[in-house]
Amino acid sequence: MRFHQKIIVSKMGLDAVLVATTIISIFINEIRTTDVDSKYVIVDGIKVLRADYEAFSRAEEKKKVQDALKKAKEDLMTKEYRLQEEESEEYAKRFPKRCHVCKIFVEELTEVLERNFTKSKSGEFPITTLEFYDAMDETCENMDKYTVTRVNSFRYKKGASLLRKTFEEAQKDSKIKHWSYTTPSDKIDDPTGEIQRLKEKCWRLTEYHGQKNLQRWLKKHQNENILNWFCEDIYLKNNKKGCISKQIWKDDEVKIRDEL
Ligand SMILES: *[C@@H]1O[C@H](CO)[C@@H](O)[C@H](O)[C@H]1NC(C)=O
Predict the structure, then answer these.
(1) Can you give the residue ranges of the DUF3456 domain (predicted)?
(2) Is there an atom of ligand 1 within 6 Å of 138 CB?
(3) Quick one: which of 128, 143, 215, 216 has the most CB atoms within 10 Å?
């Protein structure tokens, strides 16, 4: 079991999508299992209750799952999959750039502020310093909701990772009720650690600029666009700013756009 898990994790570090496809193609060709104990079996890296697995093994059930997996595999052969396949882990290490960090920071901060506070008549959030610190904390925590995408011109989108979606798709029509992953959850959502780096850079941004520049914006400059006032003119100064004008897509919006 441990051996199996190790293989999955190290491969995932190299290329999450490839592993997802490998897992799926193994599923399609042959369901391979390893005995764990009397209660569970491992089905290609996913721990399954033996009773569930036995029910599922009956030919009729198997066919349904195979069809669902086949469809999941076809869906994977999308533009997003092909583009991600071309990207190495070394390349991923160059990201996120400062521009990405600031753009997502502002996107999330704005969402947190709008959700929790009502703007005054003059268009400002009436918020105390302490509340602002809470809002910034929440903002950085929310970076977890992002994943890398290669379809859109902005490198990140808000939504589940391709691998997570693949797993979910594979399980959707399955009669197996209890799935748990032998692969750590963070490896499914963030195989190259890029989202973790995004989060760390967000904390650093709030550390360096929270007290001074961001509070200045809060107290005196809320009428200014925070993307221009803070990101472009202060945080990015001499860095590349191209990503600021790009749109950040959310999962469901991407779907809608693809259909257009
Ligand atoms: C915003 O509201 C949510 C609940 O709707 C709460 O959990 C969160 O702590 C609030 N955040 C701030 C910064 O006030």
Answers:
(1) 106-234
(2) yes
(3) 143
